[in-house]
Amino acid sequence: MEPQIQYVTTSDGVNIAFSTLGKGMPFVHMPFAFSHLQLSWETPEFRSWRELLAKVLQFVTYDTRGTGLSDRDVTDFSLDAGVRDLEAVVDHLSLERFALLAPSLRGPVGVAYAVRHPERVSHFILMNAVARTTDFTGGPQAQALLKLANADWEVATETIAHVAMGWSEGELARRYAALIRESMTQETLLAVLAAPDVDVTELLPQVSSPTLVLHSRDSPIPSVDSARGLASRIPNARLVLLEGAAPADLGDPEYVHSAIVEFLGDEVPTTTRDAPGAFRTILFTDVEGSTALTERLGDVTARDLLREHERITREALKDHGGSEVKTMGDGFMASFGSVTKAVECAIALQRAFAERESDEPLSVRVGINAGEPIEEDGDLFGATVILASRIAGKAEGAEILVADTVRGLCSGKGFLFADRGEFVAKGFEDPVRLFEVRWQEND
Q1: Does 443 fall in a domain?
Q2: Do 344 and 251 fall within a single domain?
Q3: Do 253 and 289 have their domain in common?
Q4: How far is the CA of 333 from the CAs of 35, 118, 166, 385, in angstroms?
Q5: CB contact at 8 A, 335 and 321
Q6: What are phi and psi of 44, to 5 degrees?
Q7: What is the pLDDT of residues 193-231, one digit of tens each?
Q8: Exposed, middle or buried, 381 (CB in 10 Å: 0-12/13-18/19+)?
Q9: How far lies 280's CA from each of 269, 322, 385, 422, in Å?
Q10: pLDDT computed for residue 360 by the predictor
């Protein structure tokens, strides 16, 4: 699968290179402060997340003026110039409705476009973005980089790459620095860093599209405070913080992919989301003390009780779009294309078990994890599945425990979570932080 690189001319005569990849709902990814369509595709870390999204969406991106394969000999880097670049691409492709992702310094342009064309932006995503360009360029680090870029272009790009990726990154940061140098000239970077401030803070309350704010928790530029400011000012915006300092799509592309697909919701067909190798949410149920139940009640009565568990579970899966993978007698394994639906299903299960009218209680543990399992012959395997099972085993009866990944993807969805601390699952070296889903009315 190779992207098709084409050109379109803006209303002020600038040639903009753009590419499309995949089919489905249009998803327009605005470029970072720098970009290069061809070299980004040739760099595995940049290509991986584009390929993931192109499996379920029509992925559209472009090189903004002054960078990459677009016209380099330009001097206008204003807000309106940025909007003209975006308008040229989406108008050329006749995209009537599309999701828009604005990263880093493209935040103000994305906000301005979303406010000017609310009828066209179905979903709006801000990723490590700002509303004021001085949040990027006005701090002491950016000013130091400006001086360094004046003095030594190569050292400046290496420094920018290590600040963005983290100082522990070696080869990846070097490739990132080389991409910067190929994407823009020294003069263009100096012009961008020294450009007058653009501030769209006052426009944020006018953004009417559903909005997701994705931000790397430890990002030095911009800080997490910028993300909180964006989310607090945009009506009903959802904030998801990602671990680490690297740009969101490079830090954990699978996690970012799942967060975006979850945010887009029904715009992404369930059958597409559940394609082999796709990011899925795995749910396990386990009847607490099933062996003791059989010993105490006898085989026939205990089996009748387990049938109740099966009936309730299958009804809940049907109501919430879950797929039964298999049953283990006293438990189920199920798969969901939506993290939200999986958690909603778990809550519905526990409430249904609690509301049963019977002298014999039915206490069920639920564990949920999300990731990319391996599919073979209708079954699912791999670390994602094993950890989901271990999490279910860690739960008490009538509890729902989820991995931190699930809790993060459900941010802003109205669920209540209680931190249960770190847990080292059998067979795993690294601990995972668990959260309890509070489902009872008095929680």
Answers
A1: no
A2: no
A3: no
A4: 43, 41, 38, 9
A5: no
A6: -55, -40
A7: 767 789 999 999 999 999 999 888 777 778 888 889 999
A8: exposed
A9: 14, 11, 10, 22
A10: 75
Quick check: helix, strand or coil at residue 356?
A: coil
- Comparing C-alpha atoms, which of 24, 102, 106, 17 is closest to residue 62? 17
Spatial separation of the C-alpha atoms in residues 341 and 360, rounded to whole Å: 29
Q: Which tokens go with 279? A: 């990011």
Among residues 247, 268, 289, the one where a domain terminates is 268
Tell me, yes or no, whether 442 lies in a domain: no
The domain boundary, picked from 248, 268, 288, lies at 268
**Do residues 307 and 204 both lie within one domain?**
no
Q: CATH code at 160?
A: 3.40.50.1820
Q: Residue with structure tokens 């009640």?
A: 297
Using only C-alpha atoms, the chain has a radius of gyration, in whole angstroms, of 24
179 and 136 inside one domain: yes
Note the pLDDT of residue 273.
47
Q: If you ran DSSP here, which 8-state letter would residue 205 be given?
A: G
Question: What's the rounded Cα separation, in Å, for the pair 11 and 96?
Answer: 19
> What's the rounded Cα separation, in Å, for the pair 43 and 184?
17
Residue 249 domain boundaries: 4-268
| Under 8 Å between Cβ of 203 and 115 | yes
Residues 301 and 169 occupy one common structural domain? no
What's the pLDDT score for residue 165? 60
Among 65, 51, 53, 74, residue whose Cα is nearest residue 17: 65
User: Using CA atoms, how far apart are residues 419 and 359, in angstroms rounded to an integer?
Assistant: 33
185 and 308: one domain? no
Q: What is the mean pLDDT of residues 420-439?
A: 89
172: in domain? yes
- State which of 14-23, 44-53, 253-262 shows the largest mean pLDDT: 14-23
**The domain spanning residue 426 has which CATH number?**
3.30.70.1230
Most confident region among 4-18, 147-161, 252-266 by mean pLDDT:
4-18
pLDDT by residue (tens digit) across 360-382?
777 889 999 998 888 877 788 88
Q: Tally the domains of the chain.
A: 2
The CA distance from 208 to 236, in Å, is 9
In a domain, 248, yes or no: yes
How is residue 424 written in tokens?
């080292």
Which residues 6+ apart lie within 8 Å of 100 measured at CB?
28, 30, 110, 113, 114, 121, 123, 124, 125, 209
Verify that 327 and 345 share a domain, yes or no: yes
- Which H or E element spans position 263? helix 253-264
295 and 264, same domain (yes or no):
no
Determine if residue 124 is left, alpha or beta; phi over 0 gives left, psi from -120 to 50 gives alpha, anything else beta.
beta
pTM of the model: 0.66
